Amino acid sequence: MRRGRRMPLAEIPSPRRISGRCRPGVPSSWTNPPPSRGGGAEMVFPAPFPRETIASYGYRIARLSGLSSLTDLGHLFDLDLRALLEGDRVSVRALARYAGCDAAKLGQGRLDARNPHRLRIGFDPRAMVQSNPRSFRVCPLCLRGMAEGDVATTCLGRTDWLVAANHVCAEHQVRLVQVTPSKPARVHRDLAPIPLLERAQRSPPRPEPATALERHIAGCLDGTLVPSWAGDLQLDVFIHTAEIFGALAMRGAQADWSEISGEERRRQGHIGAQVLVQGVPGIKAFLAEHIGTGRRGNDYRYAFGQAFDPFYFRRALPAYRPVCEVLADYVGETFRFTGQEKVFGIQTRGIAPKTLRALCTHHGIGLKITAQVLKAQYGLRAGASAEVRPELIAELAPALRDLLNAQDAARALGVSIDVLKGLIADGLLLPDYQFNDRMRGFSRETLDRFLAEWCKGARAKRGRGTKIALLELARSRCVRTSRLLLAVRALGVPLLRDARRHGLAGVFVAEADTVALLRQLREQVGA
């Protein structure tokens, strides 16, 4: 054979003919098909449909060969499945030789731009065989026979061996039409009996008879002695709460509830129902008996054990709101909180906290500055968890509620923290509270008075002389801003204000006054 001459399709040896051996249990006609007559390829299987993918045709050939998937076909003939789906020439020729079709036409299906699944490679076709149970794929030609009453001609059951890449009727070789009947009115009149037949196969739902627990609870709640809080409960919430309370009484709060059987849960539900119908006082007495104050002091979560979890995870449901309110009320009356006053998101009336952190949070004041005030004025060294007198914090709260620290005060003035320290050192700004170099307290009124004093100058007009910002002048001459303000006050130099800037950053001085200001600064330094 000359170099470059292509081998005819009929002369391409099959994968098994090369080795000369056949797999056990496989007919020799599968691996060694009979030679074609007339020199052309013999059509052993149907030809591929137009625009059909390799995955679709290979899966169809595998099913017609008695195999379950294209993977089994590739395993039988030692084909690289991924290379076959990607359109490998050798693999496609091997599949075409086995099927007896044209390899060129089979390879065009993957490259056809109109094929919506041409790029879907490397997937298992078995996952694409199942049709959506909520939709119907029918052949428009078969619908004609189905409308005439010939149910045998319908192709609804013939699409199990067609992948989603190419749903084609096996009899008419036309593409199937997918119908999704979301509403009965949208169903085609020819397809209207199909949902009705499916609905007729399922028996209508029957209401389950009331259980013994439901009859018992209904009997307890029947009459005029119904508690007001239990009258708003749903029956399923009532039963669920009764089962939890019964398990709490039988097994305890710290027991394992995972092995409770259905019969035991129903027996425990009768015990819990007797507690729930007694109302809120009876429930609190039951909780005090089985929960108490807990084994670990004030940790009510540990005291409730696993009985607390079902209500915690359902606290957002409105149906569980009455039960959660009763539990939160009991927790507030029995347990002492340390900065936590809510149970299930419900505000409780617990024992008033006396720790410094809880009192500062309650009054809306800072914890650190309050501790410094207690240390400086009263000589009390109190930490965040230390208990202090609530009336003492209530007395200090009005003066400390709106205080700002040094960082917030500098941000309010529009300057840096170093400029603020210079203003304090030269006496231009006096803090309301000063304990050390780090802890200072400024009120809003003090900062407003300072800004009103230095930012009340005339509004600077555009194009009327050259001006320079006061902060920029101080940085360029390496002097304090406070020293520059003292020189402005000594000379009576008018200041200009730019309303677009905040605080001292919007204070300007005319360029003509800078020489006099610098001369005054030299005299101050020399003095």
TrEMBL record:
<feature type="domain" description="TniQ">
    <location>
        <begin position="44"/>
        <end position="176"/>
    </location>
</feature>
<dbReference type="Pfam" id="PF06527">
    <property type="entry name" value="TniQ"/>
</dbReference>
<dbReference type="InterPro" id="IPR009492">
    <property type="entry name" value="TniQ"/>
</dbReference>
<protein>
    <recommendedName>
        <fullName>TniQ domain-containing protein</fullName>
    </recommendedName>
</protein>
<feature type="region of interest" description="Disordered">
    <location>
        <begin position="15"/>
        <end position="41"/>
    </location>
</feature>
